[in-house]
Design goal:
single chain; mainly alpha; 4-stranded antiparallel beta sheet; globular; DNA-binding; zinc ion binding; E_motif; DYW domain-containing protein; TPR-like_helical_dom_sf; RNA binding
DNA sequence: ATAGGGTTAG
């Protein structure tokens, strides 16, 4: 920076200041390189009498790079007002600014200008458009830009994958990745693979994820922290704790995110104590925990039943680290209290919450009431949930189970009749299974695959075998407001069974089959996913 | 004359 000032001064003395080429380069160095900063660039910019397109582009780029998107857009306006015509270099930075601020409408109108000025066939402009629409959640226009492109680069594919990942459209991410490989137009790039790895994580595509890992190891000399962390997360969430832990231990540059992934991973797998140990290791390293890390540690306490430790950490979170607890933190700690049957403490805490308690909070208490067979709490919470207008069939299952356990048959029956009166149904589930690195999905009663008859026949065979082993179908947890026979049918061709039968048909003996089951609006945000993993085999 | 787009958890 000092050197830059010197050069600036020298240029002034030598009269080079009239040489706009020199000044432009000075400006670019200030704005973009690591040696300068935007304050100084603005100073230089203000000394230029008649800034041209290049100077404006440089300034817009610099602001975008600094995430100062407002200033970037202000300069773009100023540029137009002063009659400077933007070029194909201008727009990628302008769209980055729109994306950063989530200004879809503005982005769209600038897109219109781009078409008018004739820059809409520039590869870089198009890529930044895909990204802008994607960040704004407008997947339709992202795809439209993609479809209209004559030539594509790795960044094009990468932006499209990221756009779908942003909306939790993991299935589509893998489809796009498949298309890209078919085109054969790709090389070793970490960036696109990060999006794909993330899709593998969410879909439970362990084999595909593992082969991507192998590909990266063969083609790159080393992985960066981002890719490494997403691989660890992938292994853990796909059930392979050992591989995740192995990668983590060998990592050279662990950051907060790596610790965060590993801590919540350990918690998820029921290793609560190990998660807490890792948390203190992280603190020893001088890494400050954030709200997500705390969520991981609290859930570790929850899984390990460490009520005291959980409450202590909750205090620490608020007072030592000055973190404002979110509703998820409360949900976690309430679940912890509920499991420990500390219902008085739980209700006290709810009173003190800084936001109105949501359905999830009450639901965790209802579940605890069921576990401890506490009718008083169950009744109270059930009433509140109904007042909130819960339309979650699972709540009613829990309520009727609680009543049934307490042998209050009339109450149990009345809850069940409420379900039919309200026309509630259990959310449709979706099962995913990976066969030979390809994902397949099934819904209940699915007949969309060409070999569905074979699959159904397989299920009948499985049933014979199960019957032989003495298995009887349990319909008690099914809350469809349909008769027993229909319930049996639904269970019989449940999506998980279909996925399992399908995989059994296509894999050799002793193959491990993993089935991922999601409930809810599965094309929406990932937060709505509920993953239940099953492993079958190798036995 | 000078230059550019895509990146991880909850």
């Amino acid at each position: 920076m000092e050197d830059l000032k010197q050069i600036h001064g020298q240029m002034y003395k030598l009269g080079l200041y009239c040489d706009s080429f020199c000044v432009s380069n000075l400006l670019a160095t200030c704005a973009i390189s690591n040696w300068g900063n935007m304050d100084y660039a603005s100073l230089v910019f203000s000394q230029i009498d008649d800034p041209g397109t290049f100077e404006f582009n440089t300034m817009i780029r610099g602001h975008s790079k600094d995430s100062d998107f407002e200033s970037a857009l202000k300069l773009y306006d100023e540029m137009l007002e002063r009659g400077n015509s933007p070029d194909n270099f201008t727009y990628p930075f302008v769209f980055k600014a729109c994306a950063g601020l989530g200004l879809m409408k503005l982005g769209r109108s600038i897109h219109g200008q781009v078409c008018k000025f004739g820059f809409s066939d520039d590869l870089f402009v198009q890529n930044s458009l895909i990204n802008m629409y994607g960040k704004c959640g407008n997947i339709v226009d992202s795809c439209a830009v993609f479809k209209g492109m004559e030539q594509k680069s790795v960044a094009t594919w990468s932006a499209l994958v990221a756009a779908h990942a942003n909306l939790g459209m993991w299935w589509e991410c893998l489809e796009i990745f498949g298309d890209m490989m078919e085109m054969g137009s790709w090389r070793a790039e970490e960036s696109i693979l990060v999006g794909v790895i993330s899709a593998c994580t969410h879909l439970g595509a362990l084999d595909l994820g593992t082969s991507i890992h192998g590909y990266l190891m063969r083609n790159l000399s080393g992985l960066n922290v981002v890719v490494e962390t997403s691989l660890i997360d992938m292994y853990i969430k796909c059930g392979s704790m050992q591989k995740g832990l192995g990668l983590f231990d060998k990592m050279k540059a662990k950051n907060r995110l790596s610790y965060s992934v590993m801590i919540s991973g350990l918690a998820m797998h029921g290793h609560g104590h190990e998660a807490l140990l890792l948390f203190s290791e992280m603190l020893d390293q001088g890494i400050e925990p954030d709200d997500v890390v705390y969520l991981g540690v609290l859930s570790a306490c929850r899984h390990a039943g460490l009520a005291e430790e959980g409450l202590e950490l909750f205090e620490k979170l608020r007072h030592e680290n000055k973190i404002q607890p979110t509703v998820q933190h409360y949900g976690c700690i309430l679940d912890l209290l509920g499991r420990a049957a500390m219902f008085d403490e739980a209700f006290d805490l709810i009173e003190k919450m800084s936001m109105p308690p949501n359905e999830v909070v009450w639901r965790s208490l209802l579940s605890a009431a069921r576990i401890h067979c506490n009718l008083e709490v169950g009744d109270k919470v059930a009433k509140i949930l109904m007042q909130l207008g819960s339309d979650n069939a699972g709540d009613y299952v829990m309520m009727s189970n609680l009543y049934a356990r307490a042998q209050k048959w009339t109450d149990a029956a009345s809850v069940r009749s409420m379900v039919s009166n309200r026309g509630l149904d259990q959310a449709a589930g979706l099962s995913l299974v990976e066969v030979k690195r390809k994902m397949y999905r099934f819904v209940s009663q699915d007949r969309s695959r060409s070999n569905w008859e074979e699959i159904y026949e397989m299920i009948r065979q499985m049933e014979w075998q199960l019957k032989f082993e003495g298995y009887v179908a349990d319909t008690s947890e099914v809350l469809h407001n349909v008769d027993e026979e229909e319930k049996k049918q639904r269970l019989r061709y449940h999506s998980q069974k279909l996925a399992l039968a399908f995989a059994l048909l296509l894999t050799p003996e002793h193959t491990t089959i993993r089935i991922d089951y999601c409930i809810g609006p599965w094309s929406a945000k990932a937060a709505n996913f509920q993953h239940l993993q099953y492993e079958v085999g190798p036995e």
